[in-house]
Each structure stands twice: as C-alpha cells, then as structure tokens.
Amino acid sequence: MLNKPVLKPARPFFSSGPCCKRPGWSPEALASALIGRSHRSVEGRARLKFAIDETKRILNVPPGYEIAIVPGSDTGAFELAMWNLLGGRGVDVFAWDVFGRIWLKDALDELKLPDVRSFDAPWGKLPDLSQADFSRDVIFTWNGTTTGVRVPDADWIASDRDGLVMCDATSAIFAEVIDLNSIDVLTFSWQKVLGGEAAHGMLVLSPRALERLRSAHQEWPIPKIFRLKSPDGAAMMEVFEGVTINTPSMLCVEDYIDALAWTDSVGGLNGTIERAHANARIVYEWIEATPWVEPLAVDPRTHSHTSVCLRFAQEATTGNASVHHEQLMQDIVALLAREGVAFDIAAYRGMPAGLRIWTGATVEADDLRRLLPWLDWAYAVATTQSSS
User: Which of 105, 221, 333, 384 has the fewest beta carbons closer than 10 A?
Assistant: First the structure.
C-alpha cells in the first residue's frame, strides 16, 4: 500500500465545467458590477459592449467579424447559430464527442434538414476530416470536452469554401491556436478556459456568416431566446453592440471582464495557451509512467490540452480478479473528494469509466503536481478495498 501523500492541491478544483476560477479570485472582483441596474441602460450596454470589445482584442478577431453575448452558455450559442443559419445547403456534421452528437441530432431530428451527412468515430478517435465537403456547411467541435479528443489544427479546412464552417470551441478557445479566418461561426462559454460563470454564450460570426444571417430564411419557427431577426425579417445587428436577446447577469458579465483582465496579466492569448499546454503536459507525462491509466484519446496528436480524459487500462486489476471499472471510478472519486484533494473528476456519463482532469489556463501547475500522487494513492486504496 502506498503511503498517503502529505501535500494537497491548494485549489482542488479540476472540474471540466464550470471550471476553476482564475488564481487569486475572490468575490471582491465583482465589487464594481452594475447590479440593480438595467442591462439596457446606457451604463449596462456600455459594460456589455466592453466585454465584447475586449474579447475581440484578446482573441485577435479578424476585421469584419462580430461577437454577440447570447443566452444558454455554449449550448445556447451553438444551437442559436444552427437555428438561424442552416437550411440553405447540405450539412456535414463531424461528431466524436457527446456534444457533437447533440448537434447532429439537432440537425436531423429538430431542424429536420433534408441533406445531412454524418461522420463519427468511436470514443477516443477522430473521424476522417478529409471527407468534409466545403461546398456544404460543416459542423465540428474543436475539442471534445467529454472525450479529450481535439482536432490538431485547421489545415483541413478549405480557404475557398462556399459553405459555412461552424465550430463549437468552448473548451478550446483561449487554450488552442485557432485561426479564426478558417472559422465562420465560433461559439464558447465563459465557464471553461477562463473560469468565468456559466449561463452566457459567445457567438462569433465571420463576414460570410453575417451575410448568411441577413439573407437566410428559415422554414422552422425560431424560439424568441434564439431569434436574431426582427418580425420584418431584418437581422438584429444591435446584438453585436451589447444589446442582448434576454436579460444577462451583470454579475457574470463583470466576472468575465475580470477573467479577461487576468488573461492580459499572464501574457494575453499566448499566455493562456502556454499555461494550458504546460498543465496538460504534466498530466500526460504522469500517464506515460502509470500502468493503470491511459488516455481516452488514441492519437497523441489529438490529446486535449484542457479536458484530459483517462480510461482504466487492463492493468487496473487486483491479482487475477478484474476490478469493475465503474465501481473503481466511483471509489477513487469519492476518496479524493473526502480528502479534499479533487472534486468532480469522474468521466463524463456514457464515457468509458475513468477520470477527467481539467488542465485549462486557470489551473496552477503546482496543484496538478500535488494531485498526481493522490491519484496513485486512491487507486491503490480502491483496488485493495475491492479485493478484500
């Protein structure tokens, strides 16, 4: 039996969403929030527009692209884009993650699009991206939060495309190098790499997507919370100036602005990317030396730098008796939570039993280094208990 480690992570928050707050965060960061005031006041609109403008600046958004704050976190942002932009041409959907398969289901069962091609892959693998037809609209998730599988780059995306490229980037933005010129629709939420609060989504549209928004006419009804057009069919362009579709939380807005300011303090976009990559490297090097776990992502080129998903290897056995992996996961997670070492690190429901460790930019490297001996200890305790 391994000795119980002594040092614990200072912040045992490794959930993959909502994620760890930025280092040094306290409620005082929200002291200047515009609470008790309308988001449609001059001051409220100015604060929302400031959040949009800072996002543009930090992400180096290309000229002509626009950003809106929309309801429903990343899920709401992506479905809003689907409801408002799809329908004019065929759609290719690439799905290797739970949420990618939700977008596929939306296309088939909710919007009932007549011409949908689906490309999926087993958990841990990417589908063949070379099959994308860019005369059609193309939907994909940059980083699979539930599988730990990401696209390595945007080299497979055609620059002379006719259709729109729509990317759910919520657990990749601020952690991966993403050439926005390759993307027409990009969505994310505040709760992932920057550790902001949930419930609000960000919608980034290219000039081509904005033109589609202005000209498209959908056959299906669009719920008000998704609606980007007025009753006369005109695009509501004021949403890109800080006029939101519904009431946002100004506390959450202030928290996001605080996270953006922290991003500047660590070197901007390059700084958050470097932090996430260095954090992920710590965990993957431990995996390489640990016989009882392996990455769910099969190809090292597709290893996530934020949501590191682990499955139990064949070595996760006690003597000749195989350990039930689902029970093993539950035991390890419960042990670590009881010790105050790590919270919310079970694999996503429906995935192979294992662990999921967030390594995004707001996580401190020393906390990850302190976590790893506890993982070995918890595994040893759990397997010993199961064999007794």
Answer: 221
Burial class (CB in 10 A: 0-12, 13-18, 19+), 50: middle
231: which residues sit within 8 A by CB, 6+ positions away?
A: none
Q: Are residues 253 and 279 in the same domain?
A: no
Strand partners, 140: 167
* Domain end (from 212, 245, 264): 264
Q: How far is CA 318 from CA 27, 57, 324, 382, 383, in A?
A: 46, 53, 10, 10, 6
Question: What CATH code is carried by the domain that includes residue 345?
Answer: 3.90.1150.10
Q: Please state, as a whole number, how many other Cβ atoms lie within 10 Å of the Cβ of residue 351.
A: 21
| Whole-angstrom distance, CA of residue 334 vs CA of residue 135 | 49
- SS3 of residue 316 by DSSP: coil
Q: What is the pLDDT of residues 15-66, one digit of tens each?
A: 999 999 999 999 999 999 999 999 999 999 999 999 999 999 999 999 999 9
pLDDT at 245 over 70: yes
Dig out the tokens for 362 from the structure: 């707001």
Collect all residues with Cβ–Cβ distance below 8 Å to 313 and sequence separation of at least 6.
291, 292, 293, 294
Q: Work out how many domains the chain is built from and give that number.
A: 2
Q: How many CB atoms within 10 Å of residue 252?
A: 20
- Integer angstrom CA distances of residue 46 from 38, 43, 265: 11, 5, 23
Residues β-bridged to residue 25:
none
Q: What's the pTM value of the predicted model, to 2 decimals?
A: 0.95
Contact (CB, 8 A) for 281 and 175: no
